[in-house]
Design goal:
Length: 397
């Protein structure tokens, strides 16, 4: 009985076709395209347009489960899916997916996926994925990923990945990664990775890695890479191919021999260093640490160094906290293109475990002294010491 009712319903809709305003229009295309004021369908070909569904464009299309048409001019709604062979305008909504074989001008929302095979001027919003092989002028919003093989001008926001095959202008924001095959003009922000093999004009902000060629702006991430950058790369490790790279051999009041590597730019760089005492003993006294700094130019060959660092010091294995925190202000004189000398005073603050009795002596080779010492109120096993010191040495590369 239910099947009989469906048949009567469809026959009734076909009878209404002339009233609904289906008209034939001339076209240079190989097939004839019809225009309809609106379509009502249950599934493709089971509706008011019948066997002409695929060659009819509709101003309005209402599809109980799914619809199939040549295109939509104003509005299309479906419980499950919409399929359009050519262009869609204004608005398209579906419970599961929308498929457009042409361009989209307007908004397109689906519970799972949107696919447009030509350009987009407007907004794509999907619970999982948005896909287009054309350029985007507007926005893509997806729970997992957004993809365009061409350029993006506007906004891409995804829970996992944004992909633009060419230039990206505006904002790319993703929980995991952003990728642009061309230049980026604007901002890339991702939980793990931002990548473009081309240039960035703006900012890259990532939880782990930023990668670009020329950056006219800044990079903020755990690891930053660029060929050149105009701003400051801020992170744990920043490597600028044409930037600031030095190897340092130096000395200070507690470690006679220190090796250090600096990388980044003179406006902001990272330091990795290690030191040791060349003494004959069962356990070698050594240290390792990390720091950041800046080096503004004072003269033609003279630079100022302002650095903040921390190093762990021990004899033998690392068994207890013995952290020397150092603030350094010094002068750097470039004797030659890839060779310089440096020297300057330091302010030092040591934090160490008092319950450990095998900490190495601080001033083993000189007469420096601790200026003040105290025990932390909130932890009696920790103490702090303050003193003045120095750093000096040579730099090359």
């Amino acid at each position: 009985m239910k099947t009989f009712h469906k048949i009567l319903f469809v026959l009734f809709l076909f009878v209404l076709n002339p009233i609904l305003g289906i008209t034939q229009t001339s076209s240079d295309q190989k097939e004839v395209i019809f225009n309809s004021n609106f379509q009502i369908s249950i599934v493709p070909y089971l509706g008011t347009n019948g066997k002409n569904s695929g060659i009819t464009t509709n101003d309005y299309s209402f599809n109980l489960f799914g619809g199939f048409s040549a295109g939509t001019n104003k509005l299309e709604l479906a419980g499950l899916f919409n399929i359009n062979r050519f262009d869609v305008g204004n608005a398209q909504f579906a419970g599961i997916f929308n498929q457009v074989g042409g361009s989209l001008k307007g908004v397109q929302f689906a519970g799972i996926a949107n696919s447009t095979l030509d350009s987009i001027q407007g907004v794509q919003g999907a619970g999982i994925v948005n896909f287009t092989t054309g350029a985007i002028h507007g926005a893509q919003l997806a729970g997992i990923t957004n993809f365009t093989s061409k350029s993006m001008n506007g906004f891409q926001g995804a829970g996992i990945l944004n992909f633009a095959g060419q230039n990206a202008t505006g904002f790319q924001g993703a929980g995991i990664a952003n990728f642009a095959g061309g230049n980026v003009k604007g901002t890339q922000a991702a939980g793990i990775l931002n990548f473009t093999p081309k240039d960035v004009q703006g900012a890259q902000i990532a939880g782990i890695l930023n990668f670009a060629r020329k950056v006219n702006g800044t990079q903020i991430g755990l690891i930053n890479y660029s060929d050149s950058i105009t701003g400051a790369p801020i992170g744990l490790i920043s490597f600028v191919k044409s930037g600031y790279h030095t190897v340092e051999i130096g000395t200070n009041e507690i470690m006679p021999i220190n090796l250090s590597f600096r990388t980044g730019t003179r406006s902001f760089y990272n330091m990795f260093f290690a030191g040791f005492r060349p003494e004959i003993s069962r356990e070698t006294t050594w240290s390792f640490g990390y720091g950041v700094g800046t080096s503004p130019r004072l003269g033609n060959k003279t630079f100022l160094n302002i650095e903040l660092s921390s190093e762990q010091m021990q004899s033998g294995n690392v068994e207890a906290l013995n952290l020397v925190n150092r603030f350094y202000v010094g002068m750097d004189f470039q004797v030659a293109k890839k060779f310089g000398i440096f020297a300057g005073p330091t302010i030092n603050y040591r934090v160490f475990e008092t319950s450990f009795d095998r900490h190495p002596d601080l001033f083993y080779y000189n007469n420096f002294r601790v200026s003040s010492e105290h025990t932390f109120r909130y932890n009696k096993d920790l103490a702090g010491q303050f003193w003045w010191g120095f750093r000096a040495g040579i730099r090359f590369l």
